[in-house]
Amino acid sequence: MEVNIEARRILAVSISKLYASRTQRGGLRLHRSLLLSLVMRSARDIYHSSRESEVPSGAQSAPEEPMDTSSNPGEQTRLPEAQTEPQPVLNSTETAPEEPDNTEDGCDSEIIEDKENLSPAKQSRKRRGKASAAPDFLPSKRARLEPGEERYEVPLGSCRAGESLTTLHTPPFRSKGLRRRMVQPSASLACCH
Amino acid sequence: MLCAGPGGGSNDVQWCFSQVKGAIDDDVAEADIISTVEFNQSGELLATGDKGGRVVIFQQEQESKNKLQCRGEYNVYSTFQSHEPEFDYLKSLEIEEKINKIRWLPQKNAAHFLLSTNDKTIKLWKISERDKRPEGYNLKEEDGQYRDPNTVTTLRVPVFRPMDLMVEASPRRVFANAHTYHINSISVNSDCETYLSADDLRVNLWHLEITDRSFNIVDIKPANMEDLTEVITAAEFHPNQCNTFVYSSSKGTIRLCDMRAAALCDSHAKLFEEPEDPNNRSFFSEIISSISDVKFSHSGRYMMTRDYLSVKIWDLNMESRPVETYQVHEYLRSKLCSLYENDCIFDKFECCWNGNDSVVMTGSYNNFFRMFDRGYQQDMTLEASRENSKPRSVLKPRKVSTGGKRKKDEISVDSLDFNKKILHTAWHPLDNIIAVATTNNLYIFQDKLI
After folding, report:
1. CA-based nearest residue to B230, from B255, B193, B194
2. pLDDT at B310
3. Membrane spanning segments where (chain B) (predicted)?
């Protein structure tokens, strides 16, 4: 439980640092942003695994693995060393363009609990009532597209793809109902060639 | 040549205060924050760069007749504004004028040359002395006013007469627009014709005479930026082999590249990496393994890397692990969360070798700096502070108490001042003189001559 609280606190601190770094003189620092995103990812992973261990579950199924590796949806089959591949901060705040629109509603903790009890096809992406008390400064995860890109639906019937997508990138907690649009830090990075 | 040894034990080198430069004021102006320190190859000149984009060069005076202090003092030789703040209109970003690195070119004539860089632009500066001026012009008065040609009745040849020494710094080359990301390193090649500059994702090779183009020799930018896993944190040319350079990464690896192998050195010749100790795993393992500095030994046989908690010496012939590891401030390992919150965990400490590669030095917090004697396997902690700034006073070694019981004269971890950090240090290439930069002051220490 303590680990859980610690993980959440670190996540909160990381996100506030992320916001602050965008107003720094000299622009967004890539190195710093990368390190922040690594910490956020570790904290998020630990938060997930501590939540899992709290919820008694008979079905410790394979679906848990995609969450642990935390790699890009399109790269589930990538090299084994991608296991510890850190995501840059842009990922945690901007879902990859390939992700479908409706993953933004997915909240990791709720989805995990659902996964343990439901088959993937019945997996609900709606946020359940039992939400953790989430700090409200965390942004909603609305996928942001680069100009010229299109959204496409991921077939829900494919359970593996569905699970991996829902476990990805979304912050573990959000306030109920308050949807905040965050300016994507990747804007400046995307301009760098 | 030099005595080795930081002090203590059988090799008693004692360090004494020599000088301190900079304002005494506790209220530090941000522009005065020192951002880089570098001796030239002879050690006669000591350059500092600051956040305000200025370069200050100190020159060592000729040895004085005073036997107590055979070494000359360092006095201001030249000060100039190297970089100004700029604005990138395309990206709506301000480009800081802070000097990230200064590197001296080997001296070839009476003038001195150095490279200074901010986040985006590298400049080559020529520092030259003028101690004579022409006098006796026919058409000009001594004050520069033009004479009426009708009043000129005789002609004379102008002659050079001595004048007060004037040191001029002039920008000879500007190497711009080659880096999309922030420049973290520059390094002059041993061929004295080329140099490299490195940013977060790329390393470029320049010719000192050519400013309108550079060669990209390393590019680790992924096709999709979301796949980014590591960045380049430092790069340096080998001191003797002009084809070899290394670059370090945020993942704690060092890659050695050979420019003879390919035009683009994306694939390394050697990869230096130490497996992580699973017992030390934490939220912040990745941050503290990021390498903040890499320096070749003068011999070229070894290289040293600095990460957040330690200094590692690598033998270029062995990639699997460092040959020596020195803990700089291991007592901070249990404080990483607080250091993350107050941003200290992102501090980039540099490190340096002494002239004969027997001792290495790096900075820490509370204005402490550490020396590690490789031969005698001794280490020492010293403090740069105004309290210990009586001329030629011997510095007392400091100790941080890590256990429960704090001995007299020890400092507890909780009373360390994390705002007082020593990030930049430099060691005279030929003598036991060190330059240590606190936030806005430059301390010069030397070993006690018996």
Report:
1. B255
2. 98
3. none
